[in-house]
TrEMBL record:
<protein>
    <recommendedName>
        <fullName>Maestro heat-like repeat-containing protein family member 2A</fullName>
    </recommendedName>
</protein>
């Protein structure tokens, strides 16, 4: 509890500092800004278990990327693309990251919207594995897999619905998920 309060306090100070230094940060070129954005995004990946920390880091990275939105979108895309690999089961940490970026990050939702099919395939593979394997389906892995599916349906309903109802746009991965 004390560590969390301390972390939140320091994140708030970092956010306020990023606002004060915003003019100087905007003057950074893409080559100078990229490592800074990557560093903050790495912190954000580590903070997926704390909504308040994740949100503060989201505010900081958004503040730092003013005028460099395309660069930030590219970095978020590269980061999230590494979570879902073809045919592989998502780890609990990866599922937590998918959930947090779906729930709290507009760029995260945009990335998943553009990469919906690989995400559906990864979630279907993971949920199938969880239901058929050693970890108890009622455990954390199962909880996170179901949470990621539900958040996907809630956050991107207009993208998912056509894959359910249209005959030409049907997704085998989505049908598998719904069946599971």
């Amino acid at each position: 509890s004390t560590a969390k309060r301390c972390k939140d306090k320091h994140l708030e100070e970092a956010f306020l500092l990023s606002r004060v230094l915003s003019e100087g940060l905007r003057a950074l070129g893409e080559a100078e800004a990229r490592p800074l954005l990557r560093c903050i995004l790495a912190f954000q990946m580590e903070a997926t278990s704390s909504s308040s920390s994740f949100q503060k880091l989201e505010q900081i990275v958004t503040q730092l990327a003013v005028g460099k939105e395309a660069l930030l979108a590219q970095e978020v895309g590269a980061l999230l693309a590494g979570l879902v690999k073809q045919g592989e089961v998502l780890s609990p940490g990866d599922l937590q990251s998918v959930c947090m970026f779906m729930e709290e990050s507009s760029l995260g939702r945009q990335h998943w919207r553009q990469n919906l099919v690989p995400l559906l395939q990864g979630l279907a593979t993971t949920l199938r594995w969880v239901l058929q394997s050693q970890p108890a389906p009622g455990g954390m892995w199962g909880y996170l897999a179901v949470k990621a599916c539900l958040q996907l349906f809630q956050a991107l309903p207009k993208d998912v619905a056509p894959l359910v109802w249209s005959t030409e746009g049907k997704s085998e991965a989505l049908q598998s998920l719904l069946g599971l």
